[in-house]
Amino acid sequence: MIKHSHNSLSHRGRRFVTNGAQSGYRSQKRDGPKEDKLRLVPFRMNVTQAEEVFQKYHGHSFFSAKVSQVDKIEALYIPFWAASTSVKSKILSAQVGWDRLVTRYNRVTRQNETSWETTWRTIQTQHEFSNTYPSTIPDLQIYASYKYRRGFVNQIRSGTSILAAKPLQPQDMESTDSEDKRRGLGNRGLDPFTLKPAIALKFVKTAIEENEVRKAEQWLVQNYKCDQSRIISMDFQYNNLVLAPIYMPVYVFSIRHLDRTFRTFVQAHDAAGLVGGLRFYSWQRVSAVTAICAIAGLAIMGTSRFGMTMTTGFWLGVVAPSLIVAWSVLYYPILDLRVRDMWRQREMAGHEEEASSASWDADWTKAYDRFEEEQRRQDWSENQQYQQGSSQGSRSSSSSYSSAGTADDPQGYYATLGVSKSASVQEIQSAFRGLAMKWHPDRFSTPAEKATGKKKFQEITAAYSVLRDPKKRRAYDVYGRS
């Protein structure tokens, strides 16, 4: 059981945390990942269905700017921490207040003035609440990476999808849908966990404790027949607090606007079509409606009331507001993006400083990082032989590369990972993780399957060892070899 004391100041819906005691998180220390730890929610949509949800999201109103040009679509599993716990919370002290109308004489205005005043009283109580918080509560699903903007990703959290989570299997890395395969989305990427469990716990506790404070406020108002409550001091005890690593299926749509990349996330399991991302609005329509309303306002009120001529009134009352509104609508996405990026950088810096002295509380959170490094070391000599053609098996594999290669991809490295030549390092890494999970020899049981998996894994690792390194990738793009 974890005991946590917390003081909160609340007044008319506003809360300010004054102090909080940190609690520990017990983790399992072990070597390598356990399959029963890593789970995922499967894809239920294909790319065509996701596009319909995407278009509906960006064309929901008259003022919406429908997005006709999408630069890129990715099918990914993105990481979440899903928390569940039971909480006992106790109200230790608080202030309760009664609002009343008071009439007093104001010496400045020399009039009797009536205003609302609140009479406060401090109370001591030991009232307890017991609540259970399952992982189906979206606020307890914490985005476990810094790759994308948290505010947008949070919009795709679902209380029903999490119930479909199942053990991660290699076959989940490949789509069986014909439309996905035709659109080049047959292989699904897998993004790593980069948000530490200790940080995720802080998000979880903040969400739970804010909810407990709200319940305490309601109880105080009802029990004491008062109008307000504030300065609530509470004690929290967490029992069976669990964090589970879960991957959510997402189609990521990349859009270009004013030379900036914006992303829209379509959750690929929930039938409700959960979408996260910034909406765009038509500056032409918004400014046109602004101009029409301004003209109507001037016609009704007249310009003479404001001491303006018709010409001056037209420029100041119609043209200027329309231009300001048009500029604001056009450049709002850029400003929003910058603010979110600044916030994300501050969050990353704060988390890094906060967790710099702590190791990962559960080793399996970085299972794919270790998996990737260890396998690259183990297979390095084999990959060298494979690339140089020193053995018959290597020569046959090299010939398969050549036959599958193109002028832009002579060794077939990009095709092997299923990424474009303009793919970022993060996209290459994500593709490698998914393919490595799918084709690692240890995942197969029969000798024939193991041999096939080993050969394919060597191809994947060889391609990744080149494309992950900027110098090798540049040499490969220019000369066709690393």
From TrEMBL:
It comes from Dissophora globulifera. This is J domain-containing protein. The chain crosses the membrane at residues 288-308, 314-335. Residues 412-480 form the J domain. It comes from the Eukaryota. It holds the Pfam family DnaJ. Residues 1-37, 167-188, 377-405 are annotated as: Disordered. Keywords: Membrane, Transmembrane, Transmembrane helix.
